Amino acid sequence: MLSRREVLKASVAAASSALLPRNPAAQSPRVVVIGAGAFGGWTALELVRRGARVTLVDAWGPGNGRASSGGETRVIRTTYGARTIYTRMAKRALELWRAHDKRFGRGFFKNTGALWMFGKDDPFRTASMAALRTERIPVQDLSLTEARRNYPQIDFSGISSVLFEPEAGYLLARRACEHVVECVVAEGGEYRQAAVASPVVMIGSSVRLSNGETLVADALVFACGPWLSSLFPTVVGKNITPTRQDVFYFGTPPGDTRFLDDALPVWVDFGERLIYGIPGNANRGFKIADDSSGPPFDPTNGQRDLSPDGLKAARDFLVRRFPALRSAPLVGSEVCQYESSPDTNYIVDRHPQASSVWIVGGGSGHGFKMGPAMGELVASLVLGDGKPDPVFSLTRFSRAGKASPLEEPS
Question: 49: Cβ–Cβ under 8 A, 6 or more apart, which residues?
Fold first, then answer.
């Protein structure tokens, strides 16, 4: 039995040790993030900034040609109809993009505004106006006379109403993905170019790479876009569908500034189909894309060749809406993919059989802009500071009555 003096001595020692500073490295959780696109890259960066020891992994590199976050540009706007969760999230993302540009001076965000053209009085427009005003986001309801005066490059035939969001614009996608990974490494994280073995076999908090190596961590985040369905065929499976999306770039007349950032905003034609475009577009050409989901597509082995039917549809639209570009040559094209969930809501949830594993995806064509805000959200969840939102849960797929898909551009 310990003497009274020994007990007192032990108590004093214990109290003293409790006052000693802890070793931060020993207490920092180890997190492996798989996927260096918009969701994964920003999540890794936010985790690093919150003190986690992070390893970011990607099979082909940030902004690569197979990734949904690849390509030159993406639209950013806060117009989301009645789905106010996305309006608030996009508002936060826009704040964070601006802050990132202010800190690093890279100019990834181009503030052109966004012009919405509606073929009829649509409830999406009415709900969007209400949501933007509730969130104190500037929005203008333009008359057709004002629209024609401001943007003579556009033929507004068939358009009944016009909405303008002045704080919107576009983002330099590929370059931003690369820079975020550079920041992860510069601020203490690790980046590895490696592929995860598919399908994923859960063995605690570890993941096996295709070369046989195993990465062990306290938490795993899978932000693998269109590959989530094949990595987790049972848990995700058909709840994420990769689709082929054709994008075309047309050449404007030499020296013609009417189709550059200073003269024309990002635009969205909300008619029978939803067509959107980006002026200037990092000097790549006048960008046009159809936001409607294309056919199923294999993101790994799918051929990304030009679609003649898609090109014809894009050119027909160009002739009708932008008549000055009737003879514009095609100067580029690309095939990317959406990874769409059935209700086009994101997936941000724990793996149902592994609480330390998080699945993040379902960008559904509108996810890139949310990258910084998604990084904040996922980092908080991984580090135990929050709970998944039911809107983003995996369990919603097993419940009856799915929400109607979103109808808006990337």
Answer: 187
Are 32 and 194 spatial neighbours (Cβ–Cβ below 8 Å)? no
Report in angstroms the alpha-carbon separations of 403 from 77, 344, 348, 374: 22, 9, 17, 21
Cα separation values, 42 from 112, 155, 351, Å: 24, 39, 20
Alpha helices for 333-406 (secondary structure H): 371-382
The domain tally of the chain equals 1
pLDDT tens sequence across 202-234? 777 899 998 899 999 999 999 999 999 999 999
Which pLDDT belongs to residue 205?
84
* First-last CA distance in the chain: 72
| DSSP assignment letter at 327 | T
Query: For residue 232, is it within any domain?
Result: yes
* pLDDT tens-digit series, residues 76-89: 999 999 999 999 99
335-355 pLDDT tens trace: 999 999 999 999 999 999 999
- Look up the CATH number of the domain holding residue 226: 3.30.9.10
pLDDT at res. 373:
98
Q: Tell me which residue range forms the domain holding 303.
A: 29-398
Q: Is residue 407 part of a domain?
A: no
Tokens of 125: 């427009």
Asked, for residue 388, whether it belongs to a domain, the answer is yes
pTM of the model: 0.90
User: What are the start-end ranges of the H helices in 19-73?
Assistant: 24-27, 38-49
> Please, what is the angle between helix 371-382 and helix 84-104, to 10°?
100
Residue 16 lies in a domain: no
- Report residue 1 as tokens: 């039995």
Residue among 201, 169, 173, 17 at smallest CA distance from 78: 169
Q: Please report the sign of the dihedral spanned by the C-alpha atoms of residue 282, residue 286, residue 291, residue 297.
A: negative
From CA 364, how far away is CA 281, in angstroms rounded? 22
Give the DSSP letter string of 148-192.
HHH-TTS--TT--EEEEETT-EEEEHHHHHHHHHHHHHHTT-EEE
Q: Which residue has the tokens 């799918």?
A: 302
In the predicted structure, residue 408 carries a pLDDT above the cut 70: no
Q: What is the pLDDT of residue 1?
A: 37
